[in-house]
Every structure is written in C-alpha cells, then in structure tokens.
Specification:
The chain has one domain. The protein is built from 3 helices and no strands.
Length: 99
C-alpha cells in the first residue's frame, strides 16, 4: 500500500501525460478530418470551375462558328447577292446542299 502512495505523484504525472496524448490524438484526428473536408470542397470547386470554363469555351466556339457562317461578308454570293433565304453558296456547300 505504501508503495502505491509513494508512487502517486509519478502515477499522476503518467496519467496527465496519457490524457494529453489522447487529447492531442483527438485534436489531430479532428484536424485531419477538417483538412480532408476542405480538400474535398476545393476539389469540387476546382471541378466546377473547369466545367464552367469548358462550357464557356464551347459556347464561345459556337458563337464564333455562327458568326463565321452568318456574318454579312459571308452572306454574299460570288456575284455579291445572297439567295432569297440569305444563304450563301459557301454555307450551303458546307452542309451538302446543292444550289
């Protein structure tokens, strides 16, 4: 019995060290979970930005293509006249329609 009482301060120190170790492990676990959540959110945001960028590039390419097809300079035929619908031979040839 005396042995336990005489070692009580050491046991208290050991219990304190174990408690601090467990608390540190718990904080580290929470920190890692938060870090993983932030990483996942950042990846999702990055994916959304890339998807928006791809869609914007596709929309811009479509606008350029339509502008190339329908701009006033391309609406003229070789004689300078567009047909009654406003289509040029170049546009019609592009889509395989004979004039």
């Amino acid at each position: 019995m005396w042995n336990i009482i005489s070692n009580a301060p050491y046991l208290l120190v050991l219990a304190g060290m174990i408690g601090r170790y467990r608390a540190r492990q718990e904080r580290l676990k929470i920190h890692n979970e938060i870090k993983q959540l932030i990483t996942d959110d950042c990846q999702r945001i990055r994916d959304l930005i890339l998807e928006q960028q791809r869609q914007s590039e596709a929309a811009a390419a479509a606008c350029v293509a339509l502008d190339n097809i329908f701009n006033p300079r391309s609406m003229r035929t070789t004689t300078g006249q567009a047909n009654e619908q406003g289509w040029t031979p170049r546009f019609l040839r592009r889509f395989g329609v004979a004039m």
